[in-house]
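Below is a filled-in request sheet from our internal design queue. Each sheet records the structural input a requester submitted and the sequence that came back. We keep these sheets so that new team members can see what a complete request looks like end to end.

REQUESTER: design group, bay 2
PRIORITY: normal
MODE: inverse folding
CHAIN LENGTH: 467
BACKBONE (tokenized):
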């Protein structure tokens, strides 16, 4: 093993696991169908972990599949993030439990504490019978399923289907998270590692708050690449050191390309993302905004050797604060597959370029490129099907347009803060009693929440002492 592989071992806290078969699934609806098929064929266990499980048509399809397997005697365990699933009603979880499904929330908001509540379980994982697994960025909801009859394409996301010894590492990651949310699994349920089924060696990278494993790995790859660094990300707001690594790579002649959403479900993140475009473009990087529905994939291609797929977005919350799960492959066919997919997505995107203003000596502005780069000819640009935007996407587009009219993100936030303080000050002057009452009620509600958290924590300690 070369020195760089040893460095990556230390950065990720994971060693390569040989003998796996990794299948790339780039269409979200197909990935959902593949997961449902795996669940339907389960014989012993189904372990499912996800940030978002919605109580919609897609969520009910999964609920029916879990319930059917649980009634058949399969041990079905669902670990969901309490914040990501805050919109999912209690009746949904009650129905699963009544069918025999073991359901656990991770990090309940009211009992996790103000600091721990910020660290969410953002992983997306399915392990069946300890033999097959799926990992990536896909959640359970109608956004990922789409509705072609209504003209709504599924969100663009990426999942990997895995068989081989790496599945044991993925299941071990689930077991550790399950224990963080409650009692650990019985020791007699441990299964031996599956036999080798393919040629791929992969690292299973577990992200924990404060350990920044994928952060260090991506920064290491950005510093080491000599030819290309192609990144697809849903919510890219890179920390300054990582952003500087991208800029330095582009300045040194590396082919740095970023594929980002043209439409985002979180408009403010898109504004912060665009705030870094100018420096990247000046350094020689190329930026593409996808013209279809939301891009939710998190992938990376480094030179012709390295590939990464998982749940980690390249922002502070994901890299430093959340529990994440990624798969890193070396010298594998996955690298070529992801590169081909990147070129295909690039053909469905518009390139952002710098164009100087003609009359006034002002900084260049961002515009969409009219010409197609020759590299895009490697993949024939398939005609994009007509996409009818959902209500969520239309609201997001409207919000982006309004925010862009108001100005850049910094001016917008500063103006909003100034306006808020001004309004509060005016109300205090003209309506001191009403304003003071509202502020007092807010402070009282916060005090009750903190007191409830302290009481719940003390109660848990007492229960643990009794055990």
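RETURNED SEQUENCE:
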């Amino acid at each position: 093993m070369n020195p760089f592989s040893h460095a990556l071992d230390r950065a990720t806290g994971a060693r390569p696991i040989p003998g796996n078969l990794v299948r790339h699934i780039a269409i979200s609806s197909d990935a959902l169908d593949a997961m449902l098929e795996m669940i339907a064929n389960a014989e012993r266990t189904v372990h499912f972990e996800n940030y978002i499980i919605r109580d919609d048509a897609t969520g009910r399809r999964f609920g029916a599949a879990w319930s059917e397997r649980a009634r058949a005697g399969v041990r079905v365990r669902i670990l969901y993030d309490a914040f990501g699933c805050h919109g999912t009603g209690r009746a949904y979880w009650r129905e699963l439990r009544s069918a025999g499904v073991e359901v656990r929330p991770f990090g309940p908001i009211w009992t996790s504490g103000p600091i721990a509540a910020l660290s969410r379980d953002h992983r997306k994982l399915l392990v069946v019978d300890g033999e097959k697994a799926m990992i990536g960025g896909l959640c359970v909801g109608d956004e990922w399923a789409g509705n072609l009859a209504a003209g709504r394409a599924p969100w663009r996301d990426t999942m990997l289907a895995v068989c081989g010894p790496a599945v044991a590492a993925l299941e071990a990651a689930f077991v550790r998270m399950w224990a963080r949310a409650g009692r650990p699994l019985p020791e007699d349920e441990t299964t031996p590692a599956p036999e080798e089924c393919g040629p791929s060696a992969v690292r299973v990278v577990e992200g924990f708050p404060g350990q920044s494993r994928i952060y260090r790995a991506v920064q290491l790859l950005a510093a080491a690449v000599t030819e290309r660094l192609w990144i697809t990300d849903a919510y890219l707001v890179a920390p300054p050191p990582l952003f500087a690594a991208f800029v330095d790579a582009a300045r040194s002649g590396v082919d740095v390309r970023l594929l980002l959403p043209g439409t985002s479900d979180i408009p403010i993140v898109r504004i912060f993302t665009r705030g870094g475009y100018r420096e990247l473009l000046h350094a020689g990087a190329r930026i593409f905004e996808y013209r279809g529905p939301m891009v939710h994939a998190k992938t990376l291609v480094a030179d012709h050797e390295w590939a990464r797929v998982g749940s980690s977005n390249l922002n502070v919350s994901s890299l430093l604060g959340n529990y994440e799960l990624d798969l890193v492959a070396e010298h594998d066919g996955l690298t070529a597959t992801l590169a081909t997919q990147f070129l295909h997505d690039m053909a469905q995107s518009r390139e952002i370029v710098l164009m100087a203003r003609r009359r006034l000596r002002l900084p260049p502005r961002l515009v969409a490129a009219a010409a197609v780069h020759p590299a895009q000819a490697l993949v024939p640009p398939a005609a994009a099907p007509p996409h009818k935007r959902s209500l969520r996407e239309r609201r997001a587009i409207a919000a982006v347009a309004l925010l862009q009219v108001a100005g850049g993100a910094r001016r917008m936030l500063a103006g909003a803060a100034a306006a808020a303080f001004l309004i509060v000050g005016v109300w205090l002057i003209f309506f001191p009693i009403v304003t003071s009452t509202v502020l007092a009620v807010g402070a009282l509600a916060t005090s009750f929440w903190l007191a409830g958290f302290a009481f719940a924590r003390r109660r848990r300690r007492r229960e643990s002492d009794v055990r």
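SHEET NOTES:
- Residues 370-381, 400-409 have pLDDT under 50 and may be disordered.
- The longest strand covers residues 17-27.
FILED BY: M.R.
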